[in-house]
Amino acid sequence: MNLGVIGAGYVGLTTAICLASLNHKVIIYDTDRRKIEKIKNKQMPFFEDGLQNLLEKTITSKNLICVDNIDNLVQDTDFCFICVGTPTTQDGFIDLTQILAAITSLAVSLQKNKKNDFVIIIRSTVIPKTTRSKILPILKEILGEQQFGLCVVPEFLREGQALGDFVNPDKIVIGGFDEQSKDLVEKIFEYFKVRAKIIKTNPETAELIKYTNNAFFSLLISFANEIANISEKISGVDSFEVMNALISDKRITTKLDAGDIVPELKSYLIPGCGFGGSCFPKDVRAILQYASINQVKTPILNAVLEINDERPRRIVSMAESLLGDLKGKKIAVLGLTFKPDTDDMRSSPALTAIEIFQNRGATIIAYDPLISKKNQENPFDFALAKTIDACLDKCNLAILFTKWAEFQSINSNFLKQHMENPLIIDGRGFLDQSKFERNTYYKIGFVK
Known about the structure:
Layout: E1 2-6, H1 10-21, E2 25-29, H2 33-40, H3 51-60, E3 64-67, H4 70-75, E4 79-82, H5 97-112, E5 118-122, H6 130-143, E6 148-152, H7 162-167, E7 171-176, H8 179-188, E8 197-201, H9 203-231, H10 239-247, E9 254-256, E10 259-261, H11 280-293, H12 299-323, E11 330-334, H13 349-359, E12 363-367, H14 371-374, E13 383-384, H15 388-392, E14 397-400, H16 412-416, E15 424-426, E16 441-443
Parallel strand pairs: 1-2, 1-4, 2-3, 4-5, 5-6, 7-8, 11-12, 11-14, 12-13, 14-15, 15-16
Antiparallel strand pairs: 6-7, 9-10
């Protein structure tokens, strides 16, 4: 099928590459010409495991074509995925500037090229009623009597695992205004019908499904962190042990004679220093604002953000309990991305904690396996080490924020090579405590 994608960011480019790898003919457009040129030259503008190889293949096969003129996209496609950003403003409201501009540009081109029966697919995350009340009126006003279809097809891609999530989806949600458009969009995903549940519904339900998805997994993380807070008040109680016991419950883990089937949600029921990234914080705030406007009380979702916002401060408090006054202390930060296998630092707990440390007079040096390698010049207002050895050198304290595989081998002997008085705070409960000497290793959610 001949498909278009507007927006060459994380969601847009991942969608375009994956669809092109399934032998669809895909044209991707972005207003950022430098980004389009980079993609055309087979260079990923961000890191996502497995996508570089697929980009090279799809560009070479010409299943993926990059354009910087929207008319080129419209003339040679029958569907278009809208995948532009919908960030939140400082007060938590969703910012529709990019998506409304994209819809307007697309509609103008459709009108100019006299393209009928074109199907527009909203892939960007928008709050309920946005497609009906904001997007549809623009299309009707510009296109007039021209026939078009409009659907909402949210994405459920996890950063660091986007390729696997796309090719092995558990559900594909199609929210449309008419059955014909929904049926046409379903054909795009024909390849997945044997493995994924196809949910055909109305636009508002599709919009809310996406927010519910992200709010639920955010809730699990904050629940685990609240249990960690309680555990820290009880000497000898390890919150990680508590959560693992919970996960073993047969209502969570399926018990079979051949062995247990542990659900993937286990990865969200782990205490830590908080969630980040481009989705969870933004989407929880957006749905909270939507609920507030509609006079719906949301004590649970309010608590999700309150608990999460507290986590970086909890790390700082742990550092103060070990070092006392932080002024003049040198602290090594291990990991800057909000999770491993991505270069995304948006809403990263590490960056929030670093700002607090700096405000209290500490000197920061950081190392991240991907960010340190990616940046030839330091873009931060703190030191960025090229190696973990350089990061730890003569530091008073090391703090692990990201579960990069490289960090898993850290132990007391390694720390002693670089630090006079080895001290480490494990903000993710990632390291093997048995490999550390007494009074060297401290982790969030556990007090000896």
